[in-house]
Every structure is written in structure tokens, then in C-alpha cells.
Design goal:
The protein is an alpha/beta fold. The protein has one domain: Rossmann fold. It has four helices and nine strands, in the order βαβαβββαββββα. α1 packs across α2. It is globular, with a radius of gyration of 16 Å. The mean pLDDT is 93. The structure holds inosinic acid and magnesium ion.
Length: 182
């Protein structure tokens, strides 16, 4: 039985679920990119935990790289305007790029990022999102090719996801108690 952090209301993605998700996505990517030597890109810091699991479940040759972006504004909603804090070290011209994302919420951060990376002439860019937030009546500007799971429109933490830089180290994903952030 998983012990639950006192600030977490309930666990929505368990450690077992997480293992199943990364092995399924790893198998899909391995099949699709067998001879393509894709570059797996994680956006710091949230996607680091997912990236670490995902890359170990991929069986074809890959490279990895990291970016750091900052969306203006803080707290529990995203403004979508992206600033590059740390750029890739890899030249992505003619490379097959897979962006590993922790969570697709509004999708604004990611769509900005994809626009920037597309201008560098990659062979392809796809998104592998650990979680997609289902928001009633909203269609995000980005459709990930690979989706780990769908989560309700609540603020979640753990498995890389933070609130004010906390809770990233929880090994599961849980809904943060609203009284923690309100
Ligand atoms: P978007 O631009 O609205 O899609 O926001 C994407 C980024 O916001 C993610 O990569 C996360 O870092 C952060 N984010 C969005 N929703 C949550 C959440 O429920 N918990 C923690 N971080 C979140
Ligand atoms: Mg964050």
C-alpha cells in the first residue's frame, strides 16, 4: 500500500500505472523509429523523471538532449509565452525529434516550442506526453502522437510535476489538496 503525502488528496496514477505507461510508449516509439536514431528532447525540469523512464524502455538507438523554457507567470496556470533559458546542444537539422513532455495542459508552451524548433529544419517533430489534461470544450493547439494517460482538469503533482518546485520527487501522480495553493 502506497503511503500518501499529506498535501495530496488522492493518487490518480500509481507507480504500477507509471511503469505500464512508459513501457507501452517505449515499445511504440521503438517500433516507429527503429532506423531513425531520434533525438529525445525533455523540457526541464518537469519532464526529467518521465524522460528517464521512457528512454530506458526504448530499444532502438536514440540520443537525448534537454531544454529549459520559462513561461511568463507563475502559480497554477500557464501564460503560454515561452522564453528559452537553456537551448539544445544538438543541431536538429534533418533529425527526427521527439519531445518528451510531462503534461499537456493548455498546450501553449508546447506549441510555441514546436514553432521555434520547426524553424531549425528537423526531419520531423512529434510529442510524447506522459499526461494530457482533459479540459471540457477545449482542443489544445498540439496533438501528441504518443499519450501516456488522460488526467482530469485538476492541479496534479508528482513524477516530475511540481507546485512551487515542490513534490517533483513523489513517485506517483496525485491531486494536490486545493487548500495547499489557495
Ligand atoms: P501548458 O502550456 O498549459 O500546456 O502548460 C504546460 C506546463 O505547465 C507543463 O509542462 C507543466 O510544467 C505545467 N503544468 C500544467 N498543468 C500542471 C499540473 O496540473 N501540475 C503541475 N504542473 C502543471
Ligand atoms: Mg512546472
Amino acid at each position: 500500500m502506497q503511503t500518501i503525502h499529506p498535501d495530496v488528496e488522492r493518487i490518480i496514477i500509481s507507480e504500477d500505472d507509471i511503469r505500464a505507461i512508459s513501457s507501452r510508449l517505449g515499445a511504440e516509439i521503438s517500433a516507429d523509429y527503429a532506423d531513425k536514431n531520434p533525438l529525445l528532447v525533455a523540457v526541464l525540469r518537469g519532464a526529467v523523471v518521465f524522460m528517464a523512464d521512457l528512454m530506458r524502455s526504448i530499444t532502438c538507438p536514440i540520443s537525448i538532449d534537454f531544454m529549459a523554457t520559462s513561461s511568463y507567470g507563475s502559480g497554477t496556470t500557464s501564460s503560454g509565452t515561452v522564453r528559452i533559458l537553456k537551448d539544445l546542444e544538438t543541431n536538429i537539422r534533418d533529425r527526427h525529434v521527439i519531445i518528451a513532455e510531462d503534461i499537456l495542459d493548455s498546450g501553449l508552451t508546447l506549441s510555441n516550442l514546436i514553432g521555434m524548433l520547426n524553424s531549425r529544419g528537423p526531419a520531423s517533430i512529434e510529442v510524447c506526453a506522459f499526461a494530457v489534461k482533459d479540459i471540457d470544450g477545449y482542443t489544445p493547439p498540439v496533438t501528441p502522437k504518443y499519450v501516456g494517460c488522460h488526467v482530469p482538469n485538476e492541479f496534479i503533482v508528482g513524477y516530475g510535476l511540481d507546485y512551487a518546485e515542490r513534490y517533483r520527487n513523489l513517485p506517483y501522480v496525485g491531486v494536490l489538496k486545493p487548500e495547499v495553493y489557495s
